């Protein structure tokens, strides 16, 4: 056995093997395509954390001529004990033969000591070709687990799942269902724990790796919450001074366009920061974010899409104002957010902060021959502030729950945008509004930013189940 756990991901062509490797290795560089034969050679991907190799996954081509290999071995085998050696002999004699190049690439890492993850598209029908593959893999005598990848329509998967279970259980001690595009991080760790059950010599290393990944995940969440707090501090208190020339009635719109461009740059920076934290390097934001490019982030239509509707903000303000002296605790660690009696006097006045059409303060500073000097900012409108925060949380959500094998563009419907923040608990919404309201008045202290971070982390914990 290798010094660290090593598993070859094998199976028929176009079963989602590369997707499994990409998600487990947390690597979005791995080529994935619905076209059969995208993977032509075996490639090794190590999951390294703080210079320690946790696991190695081997992405292999699909079996092509398993039945021919089985016939060749059967003609020469005298006993079951001969089978592993015969497979090694076959690979040695045929590795230069282009007809068997893919099959030899599949068998080589397994015969060298790698465990086996056999992946099948469970929407397809079981066939005799699979019988030959499973027989060959059983002859290697390596620890092995079968994965049912539900790639097709749900009704088709349901129709074939029993057949697959019955067939695979004859060759594998463990059969699991795993969707590398959609299954949660918790499911990924559960799969690794399953591998520990079939590979006793690697059990300790596999389970220690799970602990390390859980710790890394929490560190990523913690750093992401810091990034969101830092972003809000920047955009809420941001001030932009711009010299403008032209007719007076056009200057305001020119100034807002420049301010909007600066906000978009800061939002793009947040996207990149969060993507890097979670190991994503090739995310396509175009489908979700680019359509907003022709519309002003300061447009009230955007506020209603990304934040809480005015009716909801007003309702929360009224409820908070009526709940004088209510104690609201942070969801993390039991630390108080010190809302208590402040709710009645501070949150109760939020309804008065829906200030006109301007999202930020706009001040004429001075007139100099040839142009006028304007200052925009800080943010002054509660609806706009909530919308900016909602967008930041949505960016985090999209990255937090996204598997590395998922290469689809990011898409959201208007319904999804409107319902996401409204789905949070009322207590969280009240807490959130409390801190946003305070941010509109001044920068938060270091202690207040920590409390805001705790609230963001508690909201983040709900993201995984959305």
Describe this structure as you would to a colleague.
This protein has 17 helices and 9 strands. The strands form 2 sheets. The protein has a 6-stranded mixed β-sheet, with helices on both faces. A 3-stranded antiparallel β-sheet has the order 7-9-8. The protein has 466 residues and is an alpha/beta fold. It has 2 domains: 6-198, P-loop containing nucleotide triphosphate hydrolases (Rossmann fold, 3-Layer(aba) Sandwich); 219-463, no CATH class. The two termini are 40 Å apart. Helix 9 packs parallel to helix 14 (382-400) and helix 16 packs antiparallel against helix 17. It is 51% helix and 13% strand.
Give the distance, in angstroms, between the N- and C-terminal Cα atoms: 40 Å
Oligomer class: single chain
Report the biggest beta sheet as strand number plus sense, adding barrel if it closes.
6 strands, mixed
What is the H-and-E element order?
EHEEHHHEHEHEHHEHHHHHEEHHHH
> What structural class is derived from the secondary structure elements?
alpha/beta
Strand proportion, as a percent range, falls in 5-15%
Q: What is the overall silhouette? A: elongated
Average pLDDT over all residues: 81
Total discrete domains:
2
Question: In angstroms, what is the radius of gyration?
Answer: 28 Å
Strand order of the largest sheet: 2-3-1-4-5-6
Low-confidence stretches: 33-38, 287-295, 320-356
What share of residues is helical? Answer: 40-55%
- Number of helices in the DSSP assignment: 17
